[in-house]
Write a structure and sequence with these properties.
117 residues, 2 helices, mainly beta
Length: 117
């Protein structure tokens, strides 16, 4: 994976004017200006192997409540609960091979009750 966020962040004063300057810190690896040779080098290619859990759903149904007049189901779900990786970027699952995302995937929680009378 080519970590373009890191490549853009290694030059002096690269994040001083960025809208996300509070999230990205200057690394100052190079004191030269951006050149095609530096941005296309393999220095910023990282191992992006990962294991991701996309979805967890748990539920339970009580089939006979109140003398068989009520059926109740409680459930909960979470999307994108965790990723196991050593990749330093935001998301190792990028289909183009170039990580230039500035927003991580959200973690979404859902809870519900279904009652049938």
């Amino acid at each position: 994976m080519y970590n373009k966020n890191e490549a853009n962040n290694v030059f002096i004063s690269s994040t001083n004017t960025a809208p996300l300057s509070n999230l990205l810190s200057d690394t100052y690896l190079f004191k030269s200006t951006r050149t095609t040779e530096m941005l296309t080098s393999d220095y910023f290619v990282r191992n992006a192997s990962f294991v991701r859990c996309d979805n967890i759903t748990v539920g339970y149904t009580w089939p006979k409540l109140l003398d068989n007049r009520l059926r109740l189901r409680l459930y909960g779900a979470v999307q994108n609960p965790f990723v196991i990786t050593k990749y330093s970027g935001l998301d190792p699952e990028v289909f183009s091979g170039i990580d230039n995302d500035v927003y991580p995937r959200p973690i979404t929680f859902t809870m519900g009750i279904i009652a049938n009378f």
